[in-house]
Amino acid sequence: GSENGGRDRGAAPASFAFKVFPAPRIYEVIPKFGAARGGTPVTVRGAFFGSSYSRGYDAAAYGNFSVRFGGVLCGAPRFVSDGEVECVSPPGVGRAAVSLEVHDGTVNRAGALARGFSYVA
User: Fold this and answer.
1) pTM of the predicted model, to two decimals?
2) Residues 16-61: tens digit of each pLDDT
3) Number of Cβ atoms within 10 Å of the Cβ of 20
4) How far apart, in whole angstroms, are the C-alpha atoms of residue 87 and residue 110?
5) CB atoms within 10 A of CB 42
6) Phi first, then psi: what are they for 53, rounded to 5°?
7) How far is CA 117 from CA 17, 37, 62, in A?
8) Strands 41-47 and 65-69
9) Rounded to an integer, what distance in angstroms lies between the CA atom of residue 60 and that of residue 31?
10) Residues 6+ apart with CB under 8 A from 108
11) What does the alpha-carbon distance between residue 121 and residue 111 come to, in Å, rounded to a whole number?
12) Where do the H-state alpha helices sit in the chain?
C-alpha cells in the first residue's frame, strides 16, 4: 500500500454525492394581527417552501409542510409558491412565533419568525 511508499493500483477512489437543501425562511406574516379566537386568513411569505431547488424535485404544488403559530397548527394550509403559503390562524394569546416545517421523507427542515403574529382580543 501507499503507506509504505508503494502505489495503489486498480482501485478507483470512492465517490459519493449528496444534496443539501435549504431550510425554509419566513420573512413576513400578513396580516400581523388577528383575533384571539383564531380564524384569521393569513399569508406567510419567505423562501424555500417548495421548488426543485429547495425540495429536490419538481411538482405543481408541494404538500408535506406544516405551519404553526406558537406551536399550534395553522388550519387549511395551502401551498402558493416557493415563497408563499396561506393558512387560517389557530386560537392564541399575545405574540406568537410563526414556524414552517417541510417534511420530505425522513428529512425535515424548519424556519421560524419570532413574534411573527400578534393576537388581539
Assistant:
1) 0.84
2) 777 788 999 999 999 999 999 999 999 999 999 999 888 888 887 8
3) 5
4) 17
5) 21
6) -70, -45
7) 40, 14, 24
8) unpaired
9) 26
10) 101, 102
11) 27
12) 52-55
